[in-house]
């Protein structure tokens, strides 16, 4: 096996793949805990830095845990082990495991959260839904970087069949997949945004896609989008009243990226340098769903 890289080496690769400067201003990304001089032989990847994930990473002998969601999104003044987040930090450091976060910078990156989700649901000829043009560390001409992805499906299908595909390829969760629209309508173009995506409804409408896949859709924004779509629908279109909505669990929409991150880290460091493991623990907070009678 090749010599193990240091934590600083691994962080340098991660920050080349997911530049911190491309994260949203409110975000908290980068190295949370760990000694840059420490050697890294095993890297674990997960969506959430919760206690069960930490236990799993330590059971694997991980020297670094890379998560999508931050442990500390708001400033803190201490990390005592008497708090649930402080306990996570102490457990990691006591066992020689660092913690690194790639959040909105991984959302926007090529082969990031958006591309991984788009690949799974079958979107081709795609481009970012919202291209970054703020000069925050990336080239405005780089059409591979930006929030979300939009493109066409390999072949037209029904909204029902498309939603069933989405449900089949994402991790199973209690919520399942919710759909808004005519299940028998034909869809041929789609947009995706991993995580919470109802703030991007204007961009989705401007992209003129048939269906939008995202997570955490709230009642009022979703209702208004559908009402407007139906009001403005062109009767001549086969898929009138678009965009339709496919609402998935937040965790499920972001989990596919983990495999890409693991593969790309090894590709940059070189085969035989580190071992990677991707967590399959379901960290979606919802544990059950009770269907309405008759549904």
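Q: What amino acid sequence fits the structure above?
A:
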């Amino acid at each position: 096996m090749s010599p193990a890289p240091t934590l600083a080496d691994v962080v340098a690769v991660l920050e080349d793949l997911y530049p911190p400067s491309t994260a949203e201003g409110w975000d908290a990304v980068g190295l949370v805990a760990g000694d840059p001089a420490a050697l890294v032989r095993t890297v674990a990847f997960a969506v959430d830095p919760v206690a069960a994930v930490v236990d799993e990473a330590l059971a694997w002998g991980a020297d670094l845990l890379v998560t999508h969601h931050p442990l500390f999104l708001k400033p803190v003044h201490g990390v005592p082990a008497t708090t649930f987040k402080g306990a996570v930090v102490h457990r990691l450091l006591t066992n020689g495991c660092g913690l690194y976060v790639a959040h909105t910078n991984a959302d926007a990156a090529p082969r990031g959260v958006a591309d991984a989700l788009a690949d799974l649901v079958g979107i081709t000829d795609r481009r970012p839904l919202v291209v970054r043009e703020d000069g925050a560390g990336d080239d405005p001409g780089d059409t591979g970087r930006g929030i979300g992805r939009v493109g066409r499906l390999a072949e037209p299908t029904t909204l029902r069949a498309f939603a069933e595909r989405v449900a089949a390829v994402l991790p199973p969760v209690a919520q399942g997949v919710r759909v808004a629209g005519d299940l028998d309508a034909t869809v041929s173009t789609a947009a995706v945004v991993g995580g919470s995506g109802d703030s991007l409804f204007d961009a989705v409408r401007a992209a003129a896609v048939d269906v939008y896949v995202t997570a955490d859709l709230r009642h009022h924004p979703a209702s208004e989008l559908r009402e407007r779509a139906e009001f403005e629908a062109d009767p001549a279109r086969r898929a009138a009243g678009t965009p339709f909505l496919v609402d998935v669990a937040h965790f499920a929409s972001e989990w596919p990226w983990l495999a890409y991150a693991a593969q790309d880290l090894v590709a940059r460091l070189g085969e035989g340098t580190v071992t990677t493991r991707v967590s399959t623990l379901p960290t979606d907070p919802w544990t059950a769903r009770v269907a309405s009678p008759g549904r």
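Q: And what stands out in the fold?
A: The chain has two domains: 7-106+256-278, 121-252.
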